[in-house]
Specification:
mainly alpha, 2 domains, 13 helices
Length: about 350
């Protein structure tokens, strides 16, 4: 969640500024690049936590959509009103309803539409997961790579070349969703408490896995930062490819973060404040853009000083203030239902 906030704070500097050889721009590019795994990491964690459990279909749909749809619809209406007061749109009820259906109402709410699509796939993926073996996973991931990495690379670097095969399901976050389950259940060699015996264990020890995780984070983040700098400078404007959540560089870094969390950061019990922040993360996601805008209007924005310092400071300020705002909302009647 903090990485999501960092992206939204760094983007105006790394994507809208054209001074690509300055320390100022590189500061924004650094924080933006290192935070890009935020969304696919959310998806991988969702896959790890959901796909290993058997939920009766009606119960799953009722629980998941009540937790997502109600707060999302509420905040869509809030952001629609905010946009109307700021820009005069939507200016009618039909336009409002069309905006909610089309999405995303406000720039960060696209995630809601994506996660709902993944929830709809759970009842189909879960039975497949029960019987899938390593070769089945590799086939699935290969098609996902074709539909994301290869497709996007060809389109951006081969003069708009498109792959004509229809495989839309494999062209979004489905690969990260299943990958979270696969890597989350891939244990060390010799462990007897394997939650999914059909997934072969690692041939690496824990120290080697942690080393691999750090290497993947550094490699993926470096490609993101350097690729964005090189190609944006070459064409004289922001080149969006390397910041895309479905590119090889971002996926590589995401896998590294996931392995680091799984094998390095998941042993010490969480503090109470960490548990509370985690429980409030969805509400923080919905509300933090308001907080960013409010701080900016108050004169506290990420470009007041060098972003290398201001962005982490603003991440802490926005994160804490959003956390307090969610706590205040939850103290009100029905507040917990909309956060």
């Amino acid at each position: 969640m903090l990485m999501v906030i960092a992206i939204h704070l760094a983007a105006p500097i790394s994507q809208e500024n054209r001074d690509y050889d300055t320390f100022f721009w590189w500061s924004g590019n650094f924080w933006d690049a290192i935070s890009r795994p935020a969304v696919p990491l959310f998806v991988m964690l969702s896959g790890f936590l959901l796909l290993g459990r058997d939920y009766p279909l009606p119960n799953f749909l009722r629980r998941r959509f009540s937790r997502v749809l109600l707060p999302s619809l509420f905040w869509m209406l809030v952001y629609s009103f905010y946009n109307f007061m700021s820009h005069g749109t939507p200016d009618s009820l039909p336009t409002l309803l069309r905006g909610i259906v089309n999405g995303p109402v406000h720039y960060h709410l696209w995630y809601i539409y994506m996660i709902i699509g993944l929830y709809l796939m759970y009842p189909i993926l879960r039975p497949w997961i029960r019987t899938a073996r390593d070769q089945d996973y590799f086939y699935f991931f290969s098609i996902c790579i074709l539909g994301t990495w290869v497709y996007k690379t060809l389109f951006n670097f081969a003069d708009g070349l498109r792959i004509g095969i229809y495989f839309e399901f494999f062209m979004n976050q489905g690969g990260h969703f299943v990958l979270g389950y696969y890597l989350g259940n891939k244990l060390l060699k010799g462990q007897s408490d394997e939650p999914d015996p059909q997934i072969r264990p690692w041939r690496l020890n824990k120290t080697q896995i942690l080393g691999l995780a750090v290497a993947l984070i550094l490699l993926g983040s470096s490609i993101t930062a350097l690729g964005n700098w090189w190609f944006s400078k070459a064409q004289g404007s922001y080149f969006p490819f390397f910041y895309d959540f479905l590119t090889p560089n971002v996926s590589i870094a995401t896998i590294g973060w996931f392995l680091l969390i799984k094998w390095g950061w998941d042993k010490t019990p969480l503090l109470e404040i960490e548990k509370a922040f985690a429980a409030a993360s969805f509400g923080i996601y919905l509300a933090h853009v308001f907080v960013i805008d409010w701080w900016s209007q108050a004169g506290y924005y990420q470009s007041r000083c060098y972003p290398i310092v201001c962005i982490p400071m603003m991440v802490v300020m926005v994160g804490l203030f959003s956390f307090l705002a969610v706590g205040l909302i939850r103290s009100l009647p029905w507040g917990d239902k909309i956060t």
